Amino acid sequence: MDYEQTTWRVIEHKPAQGAWNMAVDEAILESVYQGGSRPTLRLYAWKPACLSLGLAQPFSEVDTHALIANGWDLVRRPTGGRAILHTDELTYAVIAQETEPRVRGGVLESYLRLSHALLESLKLLGLYPEANEKDTDNQRKTPNPVCFEVPSNYEITVKGLKLIGSAQARRKEGILQHGAIPLGGDLTRIITALKFEDETAQTNAKERLLAHATTIERELRRRPSWDEVSKALQKAFTTTLNLNLEAGELTPKETRRAQELMQEKYAHPSWTERI
Known about the structure:
The chain has helices spanning about 20-35, 65-70, 105-125, 135-140, 200-210, 215-220, 225-240, 250-265, 270; strands spanning about 5-10, 40-45, 50-55, 75, 85, 90-95, 130, 155-160, 160-170, 175-180, 245. The strands form two sheets. The chain has an eight-stranded mixed sheet, sandwiched between helices. The protein has one domain (about 5-270): 2-Layer Sandwich (BirA Bifunctional Protein, domain 2). It contains nine helices and eleven strands. It is an alpha/beta fold. The radius of gyration is 18 Å and the shape is globular.
């Protein structure tokens, strides 16, 4: 699809706490809707490692003792999907008004448009990815707390293994899509942070995860730096979606709003433990 060139803001953020990361994404969404900011491509990381739950995922699936033992944070995302352990990764967020042609339409339609840029970024890194378009409705009916075990429509796979897990929040303010790109490391670490019936079920979950998901390091046999992946994403979004990406930072208003959202929502048990 041909797009008329437009300017988006791109923000590269240093690693931060999970509650802050989610608060910033929502603060940008509000600012974009109010006309205070351009559509934004935000690239960031997490410190310390953080388990994020999907919007409707039960808090009871979390092994809080394991989180404490590992020194990991916990946050609930404003988007759907299942649990992700954010570590050794680059996270991207696309935030725009619903009238922006690159995200306009239904969920799958906008996923597909953005997936073109994600695919191109991985090709620039030397991978041969594809957008999964299989009907996974039956798979999604199976109870499963781990996001990366089952590829959903238009999520990115390499050799049939899920590499990028993405999710959307669609509101009157616009659209937020964010996703995790694992650079390397042991994907099965997430299993220790979730509850299973017994040790056998936990072992089986680890085996299923390794059989269905991968990392860039596993596929390239080298781990790219965060900066290398960031540059590939920015180049791919620029060329594939005909964007002029202008480097920027949060506005003072966005920063204040993110601080409010962090304290009142994302770092508060009333949100994290809501279901």
